[in-house]
């Protein structure tokens, strides 16, 4: 929890190695601080959102090499000074008045930056503006405390800041993902932490500028700790700021018990002097440990409530229903519902792509408040249904319909009657069958499809009715050993067979798939496949997973789906879809 960069990079490589991405200097807030604590207020607020490239400069600072710091704060400069004595120009000499000694002033240059992957969260922006005033004040108090301190364990590389013309410090607000990468790169620790301090000071260079370094704070971890400790996010960030600043001034609680005690004492003193709430980070860590809290333990992914600290990687997420959003009981868990709700609240559009009818999806998602105007499915929202055979676009209007060859439909119905194999024919939002059977009833009782209508004859079932697909029910063995081999051969090029469930065989029009339905919808919406993520589990999801920029197959899925997926997620009974959204969509 309490971390400090322990390795010191080579002088010329330091800026590149400390943070491999540049802070833009446009975020600098300059404050002039004199030795008697007089403050000159900084200019109007500016906060930079920083993006990272391959620049070797972390702050974009100008280094003034070759200048030696003198006690009277004058700089030795080689070359002609252009001085001309008055007597040489025959000017009248006058008695010189003694000049008042100019008060020494120390300029504090503070960069407050927000890492680009942090969204424009109003609270974070407000905190960054507040830090423009808080950070220089904390620096002033910390510098004053150094003068009379008698700490035995502090590294005294920085003692008298009055020797410098100015002091520079950068504070970066980021999320767990970013600070985790820093930990991996610099500390060989593959986990996030709350704050990292990165020193830029190289005493040997004798620069007129004290480049104090960089403090990196994860607002995501800070938010968790603030909630645990009962204070605001700003309070927690201030505590982390004090901790990071003391590290840059030579305190290190990790080297010994004595060093820890000294740093803890200085934390409490500095927070009290500033009038900031909360205990020091060291004491807070002990309190959390005593209470049995493990805020940073086993944090390997973004979780519920954390998406506010991340920008979406995709514009759309296409989700299957059975075996994906729904668990083995054909129910959607509260965790999965919350993940969908949080994703949409962050601007990501969730679109259903399923073998189910639209009415069935609305029924299921209505139970968790995700159907209707503010949900992810409704009569006026886009979606891909009945294995991509019915596609609805803007305002929920039908943009594509593909029907099964009537000849194939007839053969399927006759086979059902002859072999007493239950069949269901899908006709938009209607389910048709030829005789009563418990497996057909399960479409309604388990899968939430409309209740099947029993049609007394094949002719009546087919007359004036568009059939998109037919499905056969049997045992898993019956489907694999009898139904699938028979119908694969019987339909030839007139239709295709596909399976979403191991005990159900579906016969659909040739050349169609859920993926082709998704492609039709993307073209209608003007969306590129690179903008979408897809989550599925079945054989019928293969084309959709291949189409998407990122295809996630859940671990309970078919081998065909997992073979084409970019990543394999947790199972549907372990909230695999929710995990995929938190882990990969942001």
Automatic annotation (TrEMBL):
Alphabetical keyword list: Endonuclease, Hydrolase, Metal-binding, Nuclease, Zinc
Cofactor (UniProt): Zn(2+)
Classification via InterPro entries: Cof, HAD-like_sf, HAD-SF_hydro_IIB, HAD_sf, MetalPrtase_cat_dom_sf_prd, YbeY, YbeY_CS
GO biological process: rRNA processing
UniProt GO MF annotations: endonuclease activity; metal ion binding; metalloendopeptidase activity
One family name in Pfam for this protein: YbeY
PANTHER family xrefs: ENDORIBONUCLEASE YBEY, CHLOROPLASTIC
Family membership noted in the UniProt record: Belongs to the endoribonuclease YbeY family.
Protein name listed in UniProt: Haloacid dehalogenase-like hydrolase family protein
């Amino acid at each position: 929890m309490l971390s400090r960069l322990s390795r010191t990079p080579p002088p010329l490589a330091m800026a590149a190695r400390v943070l491999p991405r540049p802070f833009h200097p446009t975020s600098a807030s300059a404050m002039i601080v004199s030795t008697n604590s007089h403050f000159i207020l900084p200019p109007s607020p500016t906060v930079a959102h920083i993006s990272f490239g391959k620049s070797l400069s972390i702050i974009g600072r100008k280094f003034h090499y070759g200048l030696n710091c003198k006690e009277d704060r004058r700089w030795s400069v080689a070359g002609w000074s252009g001085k001309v004595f008055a007597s040489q120009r025959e000017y009248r000499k006058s008695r010189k008045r003694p000049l008042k000694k100019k008060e020494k002033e120390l300029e504090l240059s503070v960069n407050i930056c927000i890492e680009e992957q942090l969204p424009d969260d109003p609270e974070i922006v407000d905190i960054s503006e507040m830090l423009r005033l808080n950070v220089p004040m904390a620096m002033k108090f910390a510098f004053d405390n150094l003068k009379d301190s008698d700490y035995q364990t502090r590294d005294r590389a920085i003692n008298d800041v009055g020797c410098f013309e100015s002091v520079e410090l950068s504070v970066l607000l980021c999320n767990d993902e970013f600070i985790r990468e820093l930990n991996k790169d610099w500390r060989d620790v593959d986990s996030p932490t709350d704050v990292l301090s990165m020193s830029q000071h190289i005493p040997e260079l004798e620069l007129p500028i004290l480049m104090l370094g960089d403090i990196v704070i994860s607002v995501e971890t800070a938010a968790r700790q603030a909630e645990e400790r009962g204070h605001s996010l700003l309070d927690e960030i201030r505590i982390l700021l004090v901790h990071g600043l003391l590290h840059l001034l030579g305190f290190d609680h990790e080297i010994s018990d004595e060093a820890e005690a000294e740093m803890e004492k200085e934390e409490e003193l500095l927070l009290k002097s500033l009038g900031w709430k909360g205990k020091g980070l060291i004491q807070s860590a002990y309190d959390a440990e005593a209470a049995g809290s493990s805020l940073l333990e086993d944090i390997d992914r973004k979780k519920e409530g954390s998406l506010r600290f991340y920008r979406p990687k995709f514009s759309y997420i296409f989700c299957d229903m059975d075996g994906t959003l729904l668990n083995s009981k054909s129910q959607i868990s509260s965790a999965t519902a919350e993940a969908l709700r949080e994703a949409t609240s962050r601007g990501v559009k969730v679109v259903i792509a399923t073998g189910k009818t639209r009415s069935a999806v609305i029924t299921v998602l209505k139970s968790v408040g995700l159907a209707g105007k503010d949900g992810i499915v409704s009569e006026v929202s886009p979606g891909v249904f009945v294995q991509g055979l019915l596609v609805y676009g803007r305002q929920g209007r039908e943009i594509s319909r593909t029907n099964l060859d009537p000849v194939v439909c007839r053969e399927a119905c006759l086979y059902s009657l002859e072999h007493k194999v239950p069949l269901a024919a899908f006709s938009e939002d209607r389910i048709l069958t030829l005789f009563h059977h418990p497996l057909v009833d399960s479409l309604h009782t388990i899968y939430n499809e409309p209740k099947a209508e029993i049609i007394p004859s094949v002719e009546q079932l087919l007359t004036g009715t568009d059939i998109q697909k037919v499905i056969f029910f049997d045992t898993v063995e019956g489907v694999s050993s009898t139904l699938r081999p028979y119908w694969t051969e019987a339909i030839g090029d007139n239709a295709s067979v596909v399976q979403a469930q191991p005990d159900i065989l579906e016969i659909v029009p040739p050349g169609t798939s859920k993926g082709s339905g998704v492609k039709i919808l993307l073209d209608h919406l003007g969306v590129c496949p690179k903008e979408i993520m897809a989550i599925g589990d079945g054989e019928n999801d293969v084309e959709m997973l291949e189409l998407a920029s990122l295809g996630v197959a859940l671990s309970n899925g078919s081998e065909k789906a997992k073979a084409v997926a970019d990543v394999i997620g947790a199972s549907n009974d372990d909230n695999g879809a929710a995990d995929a959204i938190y882990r990969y969509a942001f």
